[in-house]
Amino acid sequence: MATHALSHRRFILLCVLLCAGALLLVGFLLPDVERLVRADLPDETHVTVLARGDGDTLLAATQVGTIWRLKHGVWRQERTDLAGHLVLALGGDVDRMPIGTASGLLMEHAVGPIPGDPRVSDLLVWGDALLAATGAGLWVAVGDTWSQPLADRNLYRLIAQPGPDETILHAGTIGDGVYSAPARTLTQSWQPNSLALPHGVKILSFAVTAFGPVLAGTDQGLFWQSAPGTSWRVLDPQLHGRRILALFCEPIVMNDGQQRLWIGGDAGLVSVDLLMRDGRLLAAGVPRVYPPLWEPLRAGVSWIQPSPDGLVISAGALYRLQSVRPPGWFRFPLAAIILVVAVGGWWWLNPPSESGDSAR
Question: Which keywords does UniProt give here (predicted)?
């Protein structure tokens, strides 16, 4: 009987060791997942603009009037002479391009400041022209003068949409939809281009796909348009009604003919693959959500930019999309250790009886 009891104890020990080994294996073989990892600026201030700089660098402007540059994985302060101005727009690298602020253009420009120093929400350089989206309309600088082809509109975003015949420029407004004009006549009258958009819609972001259509992120969902003057259409019903603050299309089309679209908003970072079928832009599959690794995002995702180290987003703080071990993966090896320690303790407190040893 004692021999049988000892064999039973050894069988239990073997089962426990096998279970512990399996837990260790599961913990270390779990596939990596993509999560947003906090990668904030050294001063941890709120980021107002995230834009591309020269080369592979990124620029980040903050609410305290500083500009930082990300180069070789390190953030360094780039500008310290902004006098506390709230930066809202970067038209390019700060060493050679003007900076849009809540009180006009900060850097000197060949034509001088915008009349009235209005809030500048976005900047676009097209050829020798500089376009500024302001709360008082669209201002365009060509040569040595400013002109205002679109007045009395609260402009927020600008984008150029290349086409087979000509490039079309779009201006998104807060409450008045989209206005558009051919690039060759950008200093002339811009026309309303909001067919089928909801009344009073706010245009918060733009992107142009590799297939040609332009995307508009709004406070009421995501829309696309094949050509100026045609109807805007909802891209994905699952995103309808959501606030779309940022859009970024990866420049490379995948082997299956799809293009990855990154979407930022109050719900965080989302991606969806786009494809063109029978003249319609479609979202392939269900939108994928990328949650933060630990703490919730500090704000909605308002800027999305690529970097050599992965996608970088601004959600109040800065985050980088990275492949990491799944949250909670350590519970499996921890459970294995606890299991082994518990059984080892039981074995030590309840050693095999001497009678069992003599019976053998």
Answer: Membrane, Transmembrane, Transmembrane helix
Per DSSP, helices labelled H in 278-353 are 331-349
- Residue pLDDT, tens place only, 67-77: 999 988 899 99
102-155 per-position pLDDT tens digit = 999 887 666 788 999 999 999 999 988 999 999 999 999 987 789 999 999 999
Please give the distance of CA 53 from its chain centroid, rounded to a whole number. 17
* Coil/strand/helix, residue 152: coil
**What is the distance between the alpha carbons of residues 310 and 322, in angstroms, rounded to a whole number?**
7
**pLDDT at residue 13, rounded to an integer:** 66
CA dist list (Å): 77 to 99, 175, 201, 319: 16, 36, 37, 18
Distance, in Å, from the CA atom of 201 to the CA atom of 196, rounded to the nearest integer, reads: 11
Adjacency order of strands within the sheet including 145-151: 120-126, 129-134, 137-142, 145-151
Give the angle 295-273-290 at the CA atoms, nearest 5°.
5
Burial of 101 (0-12, 13-18, 19+ CB in 10 A): buried
Cα 354 to Cα 104: distance, rounded to the nearest angstrom: 91
For 354, the enclosing helix (H) or strand (E) is helix 354-359
Q: State whether residue 121 is helix, strand or coil.
A: strand
pLDDT at 325: 63
Whose CA is closest to 169, among 219, 249, 178, 177? 178
A 10 A CB-CB count for 141 gives: 21
Secondary element (H or E) of residue 61? strand 58-62
Name the nearest CA neighbour of 104 among 92, 94, 114, 90: 114
∠63-314-57 over CA atoms, to 5°?
90
Q: Report the C-alpha gap between 105 and 159 in whole angstroms.
A: 19
